[in-house]
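Input record, target 12 of the design panel.
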């Protein structure tokens, strides 16, 4: 069953003023496409139209990663639509497989180690203003979320200092 809920903005570190939307998906191969269409439908025809393609690509990669690399029963997509930024968070129930911070796509390519798989997080690094992962639940972690923020202003590009991070929340 797929559900969509409009809710108040979350209390996450990337909280922003604006509207908040949630989508819960079964962990199937179709989930990435459904999430892609969900995010595009929220942003198309709005002042956020300029970031629709980047948002579609990024959410597809993150949801596909959750499907491929976890055995979670549900993949949860949260979209916070602010005036100048859109933050998308994809949560699953496998808390200890958060993406590693540190190595950039350019460093891997220069070193000749760019893998065929795993390029999705490099896309986040190139397209997003910021991205990271949160492990929620402290002593008994319950889930993790990989999130990314895109800027509405087409002139804004990802900052070199906007590196992935992992935060643990209670």
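The sequence produced for target 12 reads:
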């Amino acid at each position: 069953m797929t559900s969509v809920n409009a809710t108040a903005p979350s209390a996450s570190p990337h909280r922003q003023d604006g509207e908040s939307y949630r989508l819960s998906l079964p962990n199937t191969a179709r989930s990435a496409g459904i999430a892609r269409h969900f995010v595009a439908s929220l942003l198309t025809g709005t002042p956020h139209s300029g970031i629709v393609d980047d948002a579609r690509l990024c959410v597809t990669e993150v949801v596909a990663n959750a499907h491929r690399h976890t055995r979670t029963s549900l993949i949860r997509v949260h979209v916070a639509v602010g005036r100048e930024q859109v933050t998308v968070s994809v949560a699953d129930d496998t808390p200890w497989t958060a993406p590693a911070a540190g190595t950039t796509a350019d460093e891997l390519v220069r070193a000749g180690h760019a893998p065929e798989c795993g390029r999705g997080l490099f896309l986040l690094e190139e397209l997003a203003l910021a991205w990271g992962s949160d492990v929620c639940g402290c002593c008994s972690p319950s889930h993790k979320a990989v999130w990314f923020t895109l800027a509405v202003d087409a002139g804004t590009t990802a900052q070199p200092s906007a590196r992935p991070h992992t935060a643990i929340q209670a």
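The mean pLDDT is 75.
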